């Protein structure tokens, strides 16, 4: 069956990171160009899909952890396409009054997230902002953040699997500093990032081949480079177990090692 006609502004001539992530998680909000790129990578490195699966599971554990620490408001930057167990669904199981602002720069995400929120958010506790992580001041000044997020109170800021789409010229450490600077003490910041650590040469080559032709390139970084990004968080205190592969961060179960991992950490402000 052919793909549906894409919404206005959605480019289906190149793979999209958000749609590739959706495909890897078994979603349906992707196009032939995304499926072909993903399948080509899996043909070289069959276990590569687990990188996305593990990151999504980490995100759910992170939200649960933050809720257990009393966090009731969240900003999810680089939220990706809606799937099962979105941030607001996990958070509102713990705190029914939890509020979430989703942020992404992909028009595909905007269309699908708006549809989901319009259908399900009867209490007006969630919002979506079409914006780029490279514009932190714009994000924090939006009407949606102003309406739902009280910056004088602790916030859970999530930047999951997005900073590896920011090149060095855009200085991801500076972006993190500017995003976390306005947040109050007692909040938390969760960051995950693709790493060269432990990655097979085949996996790195497959990822490069996919994202070289995608709408955003993926910059896979070393542990030292990721640590420099985390060190930009003002007052940031690393929570146990520190910066580790996401599948090893407070796991609910043990899983096989992927051919390429994301490193993840949670810091308390």
From TrEMBL:
InterPro entries: SAM-dependent_MTases_sf, SAM_dep_MeTrfase_SAV2177_type. It comes from the Bacteria. GO terms for molecular function: methyltransferase activity. Coiled coil: none annotated. Keywords: Methyltransferase, Transferase. One of its GO terms (biological process) is methylation. Pfam families: Methyltransf_19. This is SAM-dependent methyltransferase. It comes from Actinomadura decatromicini. The lineage of its organism: Bacteria, Bacillati, Actinomycetota, Actinomycetes, Streptosporangiales.
């Amino acid at each position: 069956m052919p793909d549906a006609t894409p919404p206005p502004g959605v480019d289906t001539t190149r793979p999209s990171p958000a749609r590739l992530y959706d495909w890897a998680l078994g979603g349906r909000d992707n196009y032939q160009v995304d499926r072909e790129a993903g399948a080509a990578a899996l043909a070289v490195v069959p276990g590569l899909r687990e990188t996305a699966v593990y990151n999504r599971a980490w995100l759910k554990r992170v939200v649960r952890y933050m809720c257990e620490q009393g966090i009731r408001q969240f900003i999810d930057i680089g939220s990706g396409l809606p799937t099962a167990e979105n941030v607001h669904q996990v958070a509102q199981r713990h705190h029914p009054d939890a509020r979430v602002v989703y942020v992404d720069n992909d028009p595909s995400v905007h269309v699908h997230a708006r549809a989901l929120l319009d259908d399900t958010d009867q209490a007006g506790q969630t919002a979506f902002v079409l914006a780029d992580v490279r514009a932190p001041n714009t994000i924090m000044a939006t009407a949606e953040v102003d309406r739902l997020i009280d910056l004088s109170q602790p916030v859970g800021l999530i930047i999951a699997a997005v900073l590896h789409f920011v090149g060095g010229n855009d200085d991801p450490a500076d972006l993190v500093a500017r995003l976390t600077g306005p947040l109050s003490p007692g909040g938390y910041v969760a960051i995950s990032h693709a790493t060269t650590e432990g990655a097979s040469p085949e996996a790195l080559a497959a990822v490069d081949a996919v994202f070289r032709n995608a709408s955003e390139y993926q910059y896979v970084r070393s542990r030292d480079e990721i640590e420099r990004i985390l060190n930009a968080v003002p007052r940031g205190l690393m929570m146990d177990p520190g910066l580790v592969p996401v599948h090893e961060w407070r796991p609910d179960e043990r899983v096989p090692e992927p051919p390429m991992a994301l490193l993840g950490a949670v810091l308390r402000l």
